[in-house]
Design brief:
It is a single chain. Helix 3 packs antiparallel against helix 6. A two-stranded parallel ribbon has the order 1-2. It is mainly alpha-helical and about 220 residues long. The protein is about 80% helix and about 0% strand. The model has no long low-confidence stretch (mean pLDDT about 80).
Length: about 220
């Protein structure tokens, strides 16, 4: 028959219980530390995610504002361009939509378009091909003012009195202004051509008016 195993002494059992208790406490502390670390990491991850969300919201807001600004600028530029084409007798549809696959800041491109429209929108001088029309303007202006002066002189001779003194003077002033009267239709012509009435067109009109006025005065004598 086997011999019974002697049981551990009481002090040994107490030491063993103390060891087990210490080991459990260490494991509990380790588990608590791990839990706190995981919670801290989760809080940092949540805070980081919230920061990213706020940053994304700011970027979305900025992008929306930029989009609204770009769309407004495109509408203004397109209206200006369409107005120029309409003045040239051409029709245009609405502004083009966004192009897929195009990235980058659109503001420099809009600034370049705005600068190009500003440079091309500056009116130039009337071409030399309209010199005959300018001469006709000078001739017509001188002819009309001479006719008005003739009417004034005739009215002065007919009614007599103070009118016989004042109307001939007025007729002379109107007649002398004849070379300049042609500048009015010449300016209308320049506006329709989207051009400026520069020194050369003015000279053509005035010279034609002077020649016409001088010829009319010479014939009247």
């Amino acid at each position: 028959m086997s011999q019974p195993v002697p049981s551990e002494s009481y002090p040994a059992q107490v030491r063993r219980l103390a060891d087990l208790t210490e080991r459990v406490s260490a494991q509990r502390a380790e588990a608590h530390t791990w839990y706190e670390q995981q919670c801290a990491a989760a809080r940092r991850a949540v805070a980081n995610a919230e920061d990213q969300v706020r940053h994304a919201e700011r970027e979305v807001t900025a992008a929306r504002r930029l989009q609204e600004r770009v769309e407004a600028e495109v509408r203004l530029l397109w209206q200006e361009l369409r107005g120029r084409f309409r003045s040239a007798g051409r029709q245009m549809d609405g502004p083009p939509g966004p192009v897929n696959g195009v990235a980058g800041n659109p503001l420099p491109m809009l600034a370049a378009v705005r600068d190009l429209l500003a440079r091309t929108g500056q009116p130039g001088e009337l071409p030399g091909s309209v010199n005959p029309l300018l001469a006709i303007c000078g001739f017509g202006g001188a002819l009309v003012t001479y006719a008005l002066g003739t009417v004034a002189r005739t009215a002065g001779d007919r009614y007599g009195g103070d009118l016989a003194v004042g109307l001939p003077v007025l007729a002379l002033v109107v007649t002398l202004l004849g070379p300049l009267a042609g500048l009015i239709p010449a300016k209308i012509l320049a506006d329709r051509q989207h051009a400026v009435l520069g020194p050369r067109p003015v000279a053509v009109v005035v010279v034609a008016g002077l020649l016409t006025t001088g010829l009319l005065l010479a014939v009247a004598r």
